[in-house]
UniProtKB/TrEMBL annotation:
Enzyme Commission number: 6.1.1.18
Start-end of Basic and acidic residues biased regions: 496-508
Key words, A-Z: Aminoacyl-tRNA synthetase, ATP-binding, Ligase, Nucleotide-binding, Protein biosynthesis, RNA-binding, tRNA-binding
Keyword Ligase set for record: yes
Enzyme class: ligase
Organism of provenance: Triparma retinervis
One Gene Ontology term of the molecular function aspect: ATP binding
Source organism superkingdom: Eukaryota
Thylakoid found in the keyword field: no
Entry protein name: glutamine--tRNA ligase
Region of interest: Disordered: 347-368, 493-525
UniProt cross-references to Pfam families, sorted A to Z: tRNA-synt_1c, tRNA-synt_1c_C, tRNA_bind
Gene Ontology process terms (BP): glutaminyl-tRNA aminoacylation
Reactions this protein catalyses: tRNA(Gln) + L-glutamine + ATP = L-glutaminyl-tRNA(Gln) + AMP + diphosphate
Amino acid sequence: MKPTPTFPLVTRFPPEPNGYLHLGHAKSILINFGLNQQHSHDGTLRTNVRFDDTNPVKESEEFAKSIIEDVSWLVGPDYFDGKTTSTSQHFNYLEECAEYLISQSLAYVDKSDKETIREMRGTLTKPGVPSPYRDTSPSENLELFKKMKSGSVPTGSMVLRLKIDMNSPNMNLRDPVAYRVLTDTPHQSTGVSHNIYPMYDFSHPVVDALEKISQSLCTLEFEGHRPLYEWVLTKLSPFLPSYPPPTQMEFSRLNLKYTVLSKRKLIQLVETKTVAGWDDPRLPTLSGVRRRGFTPSTLHTFCSRIGVSKVDSVIDFGDLENVARDDMDKTAPRGFVVTSPLKVTLTGPPPSHTSISIPTHPKDPSFGDRDVPFSSSLYVERSDFFDVAGPEGKDSPLPKGFNRLTTTQSARLRNAYVITVKDVVRDEDGNPTELICEYDPETFGGVTPEGQKRDPSSLHFQFERQGYYALDKESTPDNLVFNRVVTLKDAWSGGKDGKQGGGGERRRGNNAGASKGGGEVAPDHARVRITTARVVSAEPHPESDKLLVTKVECGEDETRTIVAGLAAHVSPSSLEGVGVLFCSNLKPARVAGMESNGMLLGVSKEDGSFGGLLSPPDGADPGSHLSFQGVDMEYDEMMKSKGAVKAFERFIKELKTDVGGVVNFEGKVLELDG
């Protein structure tokens, strides 16, 4: 009996060079490279970084270089040597594949415009209509395709479509476009040598086969494309290398709460100069988080913890910050920094200590000690002093558990003396500008550690009682710039903004319902995630004359099916293209045998009749989240518990619009988040 042949496990990461990579890509990169490291059959490790460079209009060499740099940083030189492949390397072969399909009557040239093709494809509940060009002879199609290749026809005047099944319930199989004309559009690698460019759904399986990819790992939005992937490989099998065909497998993408991971929106932030470039440390791009101070180790641990599944979920950004905090706690030397200084002057004889020996890392003696200067004039954080007798004390009582300095409460300077406030110097508004204090010379105390390595952005510090920081690339000896990676956990929850830790420590969205500090459940209207969308299609429900089946676009590469009881109030055609609002964190439900992923929001008139669907605010793109003015939204991850469902029902009853059509809840206006 012959032994079963084994083949190496080969994966690929295929980014399009039309932007910088972000945190969502980190999960995909680490799954592909990590899978190879764990399961390679022959002991070799191979993951191809392949540029999906099939759209020269949006791609550039800058983006390609940034991708190489980001992947190198994330996986390291042992697993990625900087060498890449590209779809453009196979443009000629892909065109030959297309000609083969044409010769077999499996592809045809369509002269219809883009809008007509979209209409002919039908909807989720309505079959497609064959193109008038669908039965053109192979010989005529080959001539037309030759014209497309030569550049003798205008951009957008023709496309090559695969001939599959216009009645398929899978929209992706309704004669998808395989090639489009982009005349005289320079390509970053091939120049102007090509006038047609393949679509991803066509080039993806072909190039996977050419590169002998074994597992083609994709995010869940490509699950519906898998039959097309397999169709292309099957029909081209006589034309492709004799090798086991690749298998497409899907996993859920990384979604982070309150984090923009849309390339389109990130490009907008950069192009409008809202941020200072793609590596702005506030951005979730890999170059941005690297500059901010995140380490590859942090991202590896984070992606390992969230795991790989086919269940869509939204991860709290605080989870990533917790990993960063744990990671840097082991490696970051400690230091002092004052971000909001309040001057302290010590009265009495000069302190006997002019410097204090302090551990550089209190948990690791191998770091050694550092000497910190000490004198009668020093600065503390403004938040370390609660001004009981000033404006602060009049506006709010002393927070419970506040053990820092007040006019009636002494406190210890870190590793030094206990001090007591004797007088407060104030500005004209009554705010403290200087504290006059006594120190107790008998209370001096201190401890010990050492060690630091120089390299911006990989040089991390824990500024004690503040957080973990990284030295920015624009620092100079005369102007040090530090990026805060993450705050420390705070022992008391009373920060001025009410946010524990002040930087992502407040956890949002448990299955049992979102809760505020101390376990208090958030108000009903703060728990519902309201999202903007655009109706792509609307059709009567096949099993119920009261329902409509709508398909809505709710962000880049994201659509949802929502079943709504609107048939008695609006016609399906009047909904198409309309902007709507929907609740996007309801548990999916089966409605008359069809799964519904959300609820369109509308209002009732005073007599209880239908008052219309709610419209998004001006300027809101599909996928934007809304909040009520002045309300700290605490969205549930998914509203599926009994308490959450009741909260949603109460919310719906109280949702109103004023005479101008402005949506509000108990007088609080609905507006764009942030």
